[in-house]
Amino acid sequence: MNNLTLLAIDTSTEACSVALLHQGEKTHLDELAERTHTQRILPMVDSILAQSGIGLNQVDALVFGRGPGSFTGVRVGGGIAQGLALGADLPVIAVSNLTAMAQAAYEQQQATQVITAIDARMNEVYFSQLVAEKVRSEFGEFLQWNEIIAEQVGAPTRLLEKLGELQGEWTTVGTGWAAYEALQNLGANTTITLPSAQYMLSLAVPMWYQKQTISAVEIEPVYLRNEVTWKKLPGRV
């Protein structure tokens, strides 16, 4: 792993973050930039590479948060990732924003049972339920997240119905718990609310060794919503 260099970016929520794994060390930059992702992300990439004294062409792969998240944020992240990867001829590793927050819960709180919920607006949340297990491979031991509830979008009540009767200790992460009254009791102890690129690095390392990479032209942001409904303005068709 000390010879592996990964650059991660994420703009899928109001958070904007970049992280670098280089010579076995991780560095990261995180900002709240709800409407300025396009202005901030590339300077942040330049800054973190300069801090480590390397160029983009010395990176082994580009990692990006492929969603779910805000439509604009996910689209921006996919576009920036594609541009960087094409420009430097880099393979790409796409990481779920929901799983990245579960990884944060593990690294910060040693949580291995996590329920994620990001506010999706329109009275809906993006959510998943995940359990971690340690897996041994020829590349060493790593953490693998298994979905109990596959990531999806729905009303807060749908999430509660899917969860049913929870057994054991579950950690909640994401903005969705505080956003909706129906979820506030279950998510009262939520402290991790937004994804960060630094935890995407942890997920990407085993994916790299297992050759789970794609090319820049294969990048597909994950919105989970098939359509978005807008209210028609008076007089408009």
From TrEMBL:
Gene3D superfamilies: 3.30.420.40. Residues 31-189 form the Gcp-like domain. Its main location: cytoplasm. It comes from the Bacteria. One of its GO terms (biological process) is tRNA threonylcarbamoyladenosine modification. It is found in: Cytoplasm. InterPro entries: ATPase_NBD, Gcp-like_dom, T6A_TsaB. One of its GO terms (cellular component) is cytosol. Keywords: Cytoplasm, tRNA processing. Belongs to the KAE1 / TsaD family. TsaB subfamily. This is tRNA threonylcarbamoyladenosine biosynthesis protein TsaB. It comes from Alitibacter langaaensis DSM 22999.
